[in-house]
Each structure stands twice: as structure tokens, then as C-alpha cells.
Amino acid sequence: MSDSAVAITGGRVVPISGEPIDNGTVLVADGKITAVGADVKVPDGAQVIDAAGSWVLPGFIEAHGHVGVHEEAEGWAGSDTNELTDPVTANVRALDAINPADLGFRDAVGGGVLAVNVNPGSGNPIGGQTCALKSWGRTVDEMLLRAPAGLKSALGENPKRVYGEQKKTPSTRLGVAAVIRGAFVDAANYQAKIDAEARKPEEERKPVDRDLKLEALAKVLRREIPWRQHCHRADDIATAMRIADEFGYDLVIDHGTEAHLVADLLAARNIPVIIGPLFTSRSKVELRNRSLANPGKLAAAGVTIAITTDHPVVPINFLVHQASLSVKYGLDREIALQALTINPARIIGVEDRLGSLEPGKDADIVIWSGDPLDVLSRVQRAFMDGREIYTALDGAEPVFAERT
């Protein structure tokens, strides 16, 4: 955190929360943004950073990825994405497997991605708890923004393949749905026992044995965290909505390859879609309808979208390029930037701190050489909590600050 004031001046400031400001200033003090505008007075003694000719934006946010739990260049030793020993692992936490030294975090910062939501994988019907964290730090606890930030679940090919190959339940789509529904029934019964004891006079209360799986599922039922539903096909998305209607929780669709086919239903329920990855081949049936035009179709239908690389499926520093090419195929430019900033911030529950350049928010700021949606633009400088963590000026080799 920076103790003295920093003023980023002269650039094209894109606050996301308002219109772009040419020759704008972003003022930072004690790690927070204190002012944004064209006529901001720079206090005496402030460090002035000249951004003339550059663009100034909030750090991008990857709302669905596996950086830190599926480490780059480590093979099996760094793969901690799926606990494939039980179809229901609501008790496991991505938080406990993230390695801040993963090279993916360096790629994230170099690509302007200053926050990530790390998910367990999609091998289980219920995969575990997600967490939101900043992309640079010494320990995950110091990087942490919110935990849990959601509970990961999967429909479709992955869980039925994993357990079908083991000749175990679930081996079909109907089995996967049954496992999820059964887990929610157990969680509702668990919560009912706790509530029943709480209604008794204090001297008559008996403790309810703790169950880490059911505690996590109960958070979803109480709408404290969203249900992060991995699904690609339209029929699986319909199942996700059906189960959410049955149990009454907040649903987020992850991937949503065919979400455009049911976009009106998603928009009517105000269900956001974290769409992607968009740079992959159609490697399985579920991806048959993958297209760079799909983000634009969803947004045009009124669906709130964020864009994901599903890192390391697509390298996390390519997040902005997925948005750029989505614009090429019909996505509105303003919505494309929202899909990298304020939309993912809202989906993962950190919009009070990140996602736009506004007074009171964390000073997580990126200076780009030009329009970030231009594939030739690059990150020149990145600031986290007002501290410069990345510098790459005039084509020089990038310099990263020490993790503190």
C-alpha cells in the first residue's frame, strides 16, 4: 500500500463507471483512488506519473480460472484442480491449493489482469469452493478478496465421463442432476436442524454435529454465495435453471457455449454468464456451437456477461484478446470492457473494491500503450493498491515488483 499520493496524469482515462476522460487524472492516496477527472488538483509532493498518449483503466478481472491451482510448467505436481475421489466435494477450497508463485500470476499481471476468481475443476458434480484474490502477493491470504466467492458445480460431459469410467454414480446426465439435488436436500435438512435448535430455549439446545460439505451448501441456499454452474449445452443450462428454481439460490452460468440459444430465459431470470474460453478448438460435442459471435448475442439479449480464458485452457494474458475478437464479431465495445471489469467484479462480489476507477475503490490501475482492445496495445505499468508492481516501457523487458 502506498503511503504518499500518486497522480496518474495526461492519459485517456476510461473509468468504466462513466465516460472516458481525455487528458484525465487519477489521484491515489493510501492505496485507494481519491479522485478521477479532468480538473483534479494534484497535491504538493505527490508522485506524478505521466500517462500522456496512453490509456488508463481499472485492472481486468478473470471471473473463472484455475491460476495457482493448475500451475504452469509443473505437470501433475502442480495440478490440484479436481479432487476426483468423491462426486460431492463441497468441502474442498481452492484457497488451500493456490500457489502464488505460479507463473500464471505473472502472465495475468502482464496482461492487465489484476484479480482472479479461482475455481476448482469440473470433474465432480460438486467441485468445491471458489475464491477471489488479487493477482500479486506473497501468500494467498494476503492476496485474498473473498472466500468463498461461490461454490463450483458441473453438469454435462465431464462428471459423467469421470465417474462413468469408474463404473460409479453418476454416469449419466440424470445421475449428475440427482447427485446435486440430493446434496441440496441434505443441506436443507442440516440447516433445518440448526434452525430448530436455535428456536429452543438456550438450556435445551443440543449441538448439531458439523459437516463441512453441508455447511458450504447451506451458504448457497442462504444466498450468501452463488452457485457457479459449469455447463456448455443449452439442455444443461436449462437443467441448471430448473434446479436453481427448485432450491432457490443465485445461479451463475460458467462457460455457456450454447447460452445464446436460451438467452431470453437467462435474461428474464437475471442470470449472468461467464462465457469462454473462446480460443479453443471444438474438442468435444459440448463445444460444437462455440463462436466468437456468442458474447455479442448474449449481450444483445440483455444477459450480463463476463469473459473467461478458463486459464490455463487459454493463457490468462489473452483475456483482453478474446474481448477484442468478440467485438470484431458483434459485441459492443463498451460492454466488452464491462465484461472484463465491473461485470466480473459484481459476479464474484467485489464490486465495492474493484471493477471501475472511482473514489474509494482500490487503486488497482493499468496504463496501456493505447486502446486495450487493439491487439497491438500492451501493458506499460500496473499498480495494485497504489503500488507499482509491473513496468514494461518502450519495449523493455518487464520488471515485476517484489511480492509483499
Would you write up a description of this structure?
With 404 residues, the protein is of the alpha/beta class. The protein has 2 domains: 109 residues, Urease, subunit C, domain 1; 295 residues, Metal-dependent hydrolases (TIM Barrel). 27% of the residues lie in helices and 24% in strands. The strands form 2 sheets. Strands 1, 2, 3, 4, 5, 14, 15, 16 and 17 form a 9-stranded mixed β-sheet that branches. The protein starts with 5 loop residues before the first strand and ends with a strand.
CATH architecture annotation name of the largest domain: Alpha-Beta Barrel
CATH topology of the largest domain: TIM Barrel
What ranges have pLDDT less than 50 throughout 5 or more consecutive residues?
Answer: none
> How many individual domains?
2
- Name the CATH superfamily assignment of the largest domain: Metal-dependent hydrolases
Helix content: 25-40%
- The radius of gyration computed from the alpha-carbon positions, rounded to a whole number of angstroms, is 22 Å
Number of helices: 11
What percent strand? Answer: 15-25%
How would a textbook summarize the main sheet? 9 strands, mixed
Average pLDDT works out at 97
Distance between the termini: 10 Å
- Count of DSSP E strands? 17
What best-fitting shape do the alpha-carbon axes yield?
globular
CATH class of the largest domain: Alpha Beta
Helix/strand order: EEEEEEHEEHEHHHEHEHEHEHHHEEEE
Going by helix content, strand content and strand pairing, the class is alpha/beta
